[in-house]
Write a structure and sequence with these properties.
Helix content is 73%, strand content 0%. The relative contact order is 0.09.
């Protein structure tokens, strides 16, 4: 005894719904990693909706000759719901645990390995900055800049006795 063709298509649709649940978990993982900003969540949901609609359209064309079958949509919804509230819950809990572990590990690496040398380097830079400011306040201009003035030719004044001037201000 075999399945009726509609039954096989319904079961395939359930499998497609479960696959869409796995895809949705990928987006949930992105939310865990990025912090779930409202605009990012909106864009992720929009992308998921387009992907899910595309998968459903392809499924309908491939298995239903392009006809809209409500039992296919019901099968997808059933597969998604079953995955989401059973295996999906376990997966997302594991992903949360893994994300916390990775954050804890990275924070430990930052605190124990990277932050102390960076802090020392910042203190050194700050001391050098204070030293340079103190020296410049004590001696004024550096020796290199003492003989430089803003005007290269101090006797030249602009707009005075300019022979190349076309508009002299007189009506001609």
């Amino acid at each position: 005894m075999g399945f009726a063709p509609e039954t096989a298509v319904f079961l395939y649709a359930c499998a497609l719904g479960a696959g869409l649940g796995v895809l949705y978990d990928v987006f949930r993982l992105l939310r865990l990693v990025t912090g779930g900003k409202a605009l990012l969540v909106f864009l992720e949901d929009l992308l998921f909706s387009f992907l899910a609609a595309g998968c459903t359209l392809y499924f309908m064309i491939e298995f239903c000759s392009g006809w809209l079958r409500l039992f296919v949509l019901a099968g997808e919804a059933l597969g998604f719901i079953l995955y989401h509230f059973t295996v999906g819950e376990i997966v997302i809990r594991l992903l949360r645990l893994i994300c916390r572990g990775v954050r804890f590990l990275l924070l430990g690496i930052w605190r124990k390995i990277l932050y102390p040398p960076l802090r020392i380097l910042l203190l050194i830079v700050q001391k050098i900055k204070h030293l340079v400011v103190a020296i410049s306040q004590k001696f004024g201009k550096p020796l290199f800049f003492q003989n430089l003035s803003l005007q290269l030719h101090p006797k030249m004044m602009y707009n005075e006795n300019n022979s190349n001037q076309t508009d002299t201000g007189k009506d001609g």
